[in-house]
Amino acid sequence: MKRQPNQLIGLALVLLLVTATLGFAGGRTETAAAAGDVIAIEYWDENNQHGIFDANHPQSVAFAEQFGIVWESPMVSWNGGTDYLQQLRLRIAAGDLPDIFMPWGGIEQELIDNGAVADLTDLIQEEMPAFYSNVAPEIWDFIRSLSPDGQSIYVLPSVQFTPLGGMIRGDWLDRLGLDVPTTVDEYVEVLRAFRDQDASGDGNPNNEIPTSGREGGRWMDHLFAPFGIAMVEGFPEWDIYDGELQYSAVQPAMRSAIEWIRGLYAEGLLDPETFINTNQVWMGKITGDLVGSWYHGTHWSPARFTTLYNAGVTDVRLDYLPMLSHPDYEGFMTTTDYRRPGYVFGAHMTEEAIRRTMRAIEFVNDPATIEERNIGYEGVNFLIENGQEVRLSTADFLALGTGYRPALGAQLLSDAETTIRTNEFQMSLLSGPDDPSYRAVDNANRLIAAYSQDTVRSIAGQFLPPSIYEGYPDIRTHRLFQEYVARIIVGDWEIDRFDEFVERWYRSGGREVTERAQAAYAALQ
Amino acid sequence: MSTLQRDSRTERAFLLMNEIMLGLIALVMLYPLVHTLAVSFSAGPAAEAGRVYIWPVGFQTTGWRFVVQDRMLHRAFLNSVYISVVGVAGSLAFTALFAYPLSRSYFTPRKAISLIVVISLVIRYPLIPYFLSIRSYGLMNNINVLIYTHLVIEFNLIIMRTFFQGLPDELEEAALMEGANHFHILTRIVLPLSKPVLATLALFFAVQYWNMFLHPLMFLRDADLMPIQIRLRQFIAQSAALQETVEAGVGRGSAQLNRRTIEAAVTIFATLPILMLYPFLQRHFVKGALLGSVKG
Hints:
- The complex is a heterodimer of chains A (525) and B (296).
- Chain A has helices spanning 4-22, 58-67, 82-93, 107-113, 121-127, 129-134, 137-145, 170-176, 184-196, 221-224, 252-266, 279-287, 301-310, 351-365, 370-375, 394-400, 416-428, 436-453, 473-476, 479-489, 497-524; strands at 39-44, 69-72, 100-101, 155-158, 164-169, 209-211, 231-232, 235-236, 238-241, 244-247, 291-297, 318-321, 333-335, 340-345, 382-385, 388-391, 456-458.
- By secondary structure, chain A is an alpha/beta fold.
- Chain A folds into two domains: 39-159 and 338-400, D-Maltodextrin-Binding Protein, domain 2, CATH 3.40.190.10; 165-336 and 441-524, Periplasmic binding protein-like II (D-Maltodextrin-Binding Protein, domain 2), CATH 3.40.190.
- In chain A, strand 1, helix 2 and strand 2 (69-72) form a beta-alpha-beta unit.
- In chain A, helix 20 packs antiparallel against helix 21 (497-524).
- Chain B is mainly alpha-helical and 296 residues long.
- Chain B has one domain: MetI-like fold (Orthogonal Bundle).
- Helices cover 73% and strands 0% of the residues of chain B.
- Chain B has helices at residues 2-40, 44-48, 62-69, 71-103, 110-122, 127-136, 145-148, 154-165, 169-177, 182-190, 195-210, 214-219, 228-242, 259-294.
- Chain B is flat.
- Chains A and B meet through helix 1, helix 3, helix 12, helix 13 and helix 16 of A and helix 2, helix 4, helix 6 and helix 13 of B.
């Protein structure tokens, strides 16, 4: 009789017993840094998907010395915030909150109301003076409005500088002898020239896409801005229209904007695939030297620049496309100073743990420490090889294969100046204008500087709580707007159907949401 | 005669249609794999622009170099091999030990136990009590938690029980007459006759252990304990984030770095081992899955 299955079972049981007893690599890794007076701080945010921060991370080791804390940030799946929220809720229900974490989906209000997060009011000015003074008073007012007494601070806000703006290919303009357009009419002329001539200089006058956007009518805000539409990354926003807070998508100006864009589409000036472009395809067209102008983060442009350069477009130059003026409308580029709740501290933390963590967060957000932060940490930002300092980029860090996250974490605050200074620091590490990377960052700095001079306005609706959408998920996701904007622009539907959209939007919950938004706005005032 | 000819002609046409249809379906299944493989060996800009289909464009191996260099990926690979090998062996052993008594008609509580199994198959445990229980057993941050929680899976248990039920009772009676005990009957008679179902379930379990994602996220903290799927996800998230950083344009590795090719290479790397199991188990697999399913 064969004995194999018997042996198999025996082997399995023995293996299981042995591993259970020994605990295969189980248990936390203890390090010298985690010992003694150092406090381990577990933190969670959207970046936790990018890698791991544990006690052995070079920056954790440095922070242990500097602040007496160790950042510990396990991998948390993000998945558009869904997985993150699910796991966070699990930890909340288990009564085992991470020490500091980014609240998501409006969860901060629930946590504050239930006393699950720490009151930071008495500590913040003491431990985070620079952060406190660099965040605008109206943002602090909003943060205070989240507390039960309206006076306390439970949340550190995220106030990141996000220079989202229009860009246009300067090298294409040069090739055609054109200037950067400043009005909608000039812009149309430039787009026509891109369409009709060989702007990219590849010998084919027919492959240029004058301008392009992404599915859902997203990432083409530069086409809506001239009409005074409040819009962030393609999502219509709340702003003051006719003296009242209203949803920008149902304004007459939106009708005019859509009508104009419909004209661009019909003329072949807007990418015919705009409404089916995924992020990847859209990016591929831009870096494939096919798109003349687009809307995106000007601070993210170096990646586009170097990809184009490496693909052989050595004269590439990105110019800033200013907000285009319109004879009938007062346009503006939308921004929101307040991005989202940054961090809350678990109520279980000791005061000492909170103070030390605050000092670390102050350090990573204080404009005065920017040089020190830019120099960074050995093993994170540079290596010493043969006595020479070798700078590391994010890409190098990935290549090191440690699985660690490169960034400082907990960055909540930035502005045009610190962004430009950080870029200049990057440039100072490079050989000079002959280096494409140097030119890419220099180009980005010019874009950022131009953006900060442009007509950019913070909208009135930036502090609205997500609770205004309760019971109306479709209104929150702008589903109806996206359907109509796509069908009208591509010519499936006549522009008159816009009125039907407005009526349907109000009927399907828009009226209720508008009332809630106005009440919330009035309460904040 | 003529009827026979017509029949065989129709039959041939039918077979041909079948082959064409199945062939097409197989191609549809195969395409993503071939495409990903082609992307992993392509130049960054071509991959980014979506110009790669089934053959690499601008052949290069940068993506694979990252796979070779990444220490964490190797560690994660070993973790996955560990949980898969020990997990499959443990799962088969425990499932067999559970299924055997359930398949014997003279084991009185078998109906009640089977009912409990079926109920737990239909009604899933709520996540939070589950998390709290596992935590209270002290299994947080212990890689074996991934194995312990999957030792017996209801569906697989039912398949194995059904297969055992199909074995003739006479064999067992004869063995009992010869003085064998139940453990001997299970290990020397039942299991040797159950190779098809063992192979099938081994494959099911292997796929389950290899693809594990949520459990490690919930119960593990240390980077060194994470299995390959987590590292794969992290790789993809990290390379996506790279796209938007200023540093993406600066630095030593940046010119060759491309998220699409890295992602493709890591995806193939993480998928290949489990794919390689299929040919070895396929013969048993078809038989086992069928036997388990038709007999109630």
